[in-house]
Amino acid sequence: MENFPLIFIGASTGGPSRIHTIVSSLSHDFRGAIIIAQHMGAEFISSFIKQLQKITSLNIEEIKRGVAVALGTIYVCEVTSRLVIKEGRLWLEPALGVEHFYSPEVNTLFHSASLIDRSIERIGIILTGIGDDGALGALALSQSGAQCYFESEESATVFGMPRCAKELVPSGEVISMDDIVKVIQHVGAA
């Protein structure tokens, strides 16, 4: 199995602008994969991806069916998705058969990431948003040895999701949006 860093991002209210900031900061030779669960209706995901594709040369894929995870690719979940191992490779696929309050749900994605081989570097990031989605998933990720970061109250549009995550995951770091960008750039540096 290929081994490169995986960065998981969960966001809700105010998230699209934060994701735009992150994607626009990435170099063309980014040495990782980014998987995004942004609370957003499935009907808006394609146009969101088109906006992001205008600001990066990296490949961006929409997760609406199973796809192998590839280096230098950004994945945007259209529906609640999870990581699985197939044919010795990491795959992202829709998590079917379960109702989720949020769509796409961050907890399911992060929890699935906590189950993969610990030798793969995994980073969990909770950005701005209302509610508590992502907190339980960040706890599972943290307990599996991954580092977690939560957007600070000063930079978040809504501090709900990052606050809930920090309350549940004391080892996670609350940092500014600028520092989140630096962490992602560092993890994906060639």
Quick rundown:
The protein has 190 residues and is an alpha/beta fold. It has six helices and ten strands; from the N terminus they run βαβαβββββαβαβαβα.
How is this structure best described in words?
This protein has 190 residues and is α/β, with parallel strands linked by helices. It has one domain (6-187): Rossmann fold. It contains 6 helices and 10 strands, in the order βαβαβββββαβαβαβα. The protein has helices spanning 15-24, 42-53, 106-114, 135-143, 160-168, 177-187, and strands at residues 6-11, 33-38, 59-63, 67-68, 73-77, 81-86, 89-94, 122-126, 147-151, 173-175. The strands form 2 sheets. Strands 3-5-2-1-8-9-10 form a 7-stranded parallel sheet, with helices on both faces. Helix 4 links the parallel strand 8 and strand 9. It starts with 5 loop residues before the first strand and ends with a helix. The model has no long low-confidence stretch (mean pLDDT 95).
